[in-house]
Amino acid sequence: METTSFRTSCLASKVALITGGGSGICKAITRKFMQYGCDTAILSRDELQHETGRRCLVAAADVRDYDAVSRAVDKVLTEYGQLDILVNGAAGNFLCPLEKLTYKGFKAVMEIDAHGTFIVSHIVFKKVFKYRGNGIILNISMTPHYTGALLQTHAGAAKAAVDAMTKHMAVEWGPYGVRVNGIAPGPIGDTVGLDRLNPFQSNTMKKPTGALEVQNKVNNLTTTKFTTHTTNHNPTNETDNSASPAEMMRMLIPLQRLGRTDDVAHSALFLCLPEASFITGATLVVDGGQWLTCCNFTVLEPRSMSKWINSAKEAQKSGVKMLSSVPPTLSKL
After folding, report:
1. Where does the pLDDT of residue 210 fall: very low under 50, low under 70, confident under 90, or very high at 90 and above?
2. What is the pLDDT of residue 294?
């Protein structure tokens, strides 16, 4: 067990349903809940049960399918006899300029993020929380829509809807003893999502000859020198155009590091404890202050968009995928 300020049994006898709990941030939340005594149900994977010794039910369902989600919740109730916490973490995202964004891609992200949050919350409230007189809902959001960001219109619109639902649900369901809060993570270094949403990412492990030069060319077109004060041994760092996107992002974060999945998981744990019993309708930003200094985590400047798109086409010819396609989970929608 890790050393933290949390009691080792702080979620003992609780049951949590976590959508998207099989990977990334939500997998870390699932693991953290189980480490602190909570039994869980997720949409996929069962290895967490072996890691923590807690029960982890696989409740397969598409969050966009109301009837399928209803059956999955029934399965959780049959297995555990209760449900105390809901974490809405299922999400879809990819990078795409607004001009190139198809209605199908926009609709897919809206349905998974916004519709999915509504569907699962609606079912859990009506089946469980309304009658038991308490419950906790935690919605996973993001920050680019706070100020606007490149390549993220679809995701920003979906998460803005999620943030609105967090507030409205908190108001309407508060009298039933239900608390509804959100978490908006920033750049998290130990997830595949950070790489997938990197506009300079290659889709191959081994780049063809000349591909690195093309990628560096795109870096040069879309980055500028800047100075930032840090807390390390070198108090003033000046980046150059060869800095990696991850390093540039780190330097734009006031706390001077990328986030970790545990940062988000610990925040989720706190919001689900009795110590947070008077907090509802709030979205906790867990980003090291990043959105205050750089709303666009893709590290692109608006004036560089047209150059970036043209260079991305050139890079594509050399085998470097500069623009992520729709993820496999969304491609058939």
Report:
1. very low
2. 75
